[in-house]
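Review form for a predicted model. The reviewer records the input and the model, then writes brief findings.
Reviewer: anonymous (R2)
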Amino acid sequence: MKKIILTAAAVILALGLGVAGLLMYAWHEYEMPQIVGDTVENESSDPEEITRKWFSQYFEQFDGWVVPYHYHVVNARITGMETLNDLGRPYIQIDYEVYTPVGARGIVRELELMETETRRLYTGQMVLSWETDGEDVYRIADKMTPVQYQILTPEFQKERQEPQTEHFEMKTDEPMTYYIRDGVLYVTYDSGESFVEVPDGYERICSQGNGTYNELLPYNSYVITEEFTGFVAGHSLLYSMDRGETWKESRIRQSGYAANPFLSVTDSGYYVTMAVDRSLGSDYYATCYSEDLENWTSIALPDAFCTNLTCSFWTKDGKGYYAKGEEMMVTLDGGETFQDIVLPEAEELTERLGFDPFDTVEKMYEEDGILYVVVGQGDDGDYMKDGKLAEALYQSEDGVDFSFVEEIADDTPEQAG
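Model under review:
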């Protein structure tokens, strides 16, 4: 008897192991039923009716011993359905719920389901299009998310192709700066505690001529101090000398172009560098100087440095700097002569990365008698520091010889939500 019992136990164990092995093999070979290409028979050609029948049949497949446990579905139901007609043929958007066993990670992942406050209850969305595949047989021709469908619509594509105005938060770490809100340009002299409107400033200073507005003004394109506040507005200078209580306009030239301008205030006067011509995709710049904000004279620039400037800055004592990419020149005599400025590489960084990522002079400023230059990475930069694009900071005491100071994080304001 004992032998019979042992034999029976061995047989049961072997059968159990065999079933387990077969089950493990079936689960290992399991493939998630595909949606695109799946078919359903239906007498009606109504897309919504076809979709409801397919949905029911599709989710019936997630039951049975051959389906891995983490792909099981207890119940699935449609909670909403909408016919979309933006792409020339009907698409059906389904909103649905799926109730799963504990640990059904596979089905949640594959269908990109979202958790709800109810345990084991998930929600999902999909957009389907149908095509005929014989008499009373319909095949799913396409599947996408509602967002993907929206991107394909003509309305979205038109909006995507049209230039858009980007909006930015105010930089409250600067006590004297500008701020744009609801199509109005303001200046503040107290980090945003109070604002002064620049009359007609948004239209005159930010307009790009293509229906959009530049709300991120280049750093060296404006000056905001208690003694003088100024913006280049077209071919004029819009300025105030009393903290924005009154504004005046000074005509610089008869014409100009909507390329980045540059404005500097020195001990002797005012310098404005602006685009005065455009040809074959290049903007050609000129610099004008005024002592009294009434009369302006031109300063000749070297031919190599009159197009597509990325920065221009004049120091308090009258040194003038022009940059195009990483190339720089300076005039120490008011524009009579120019000489090259060479910024040294950040050697330790270059050795670590294998290249120097900094190739575009973006802004200059003076502080406590020291001249600083910030060099960024241009439009294709991707070297990050503290989660932001990194920039290189240089300094000079004599305005000619510069040394690398440190890497800094790009301080471009965050886009407004």
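Findings: Residues 163-341 form one domain.
Further findings: The chain has two domains: 34-160, 163-341.
Recommendation: see findings above.
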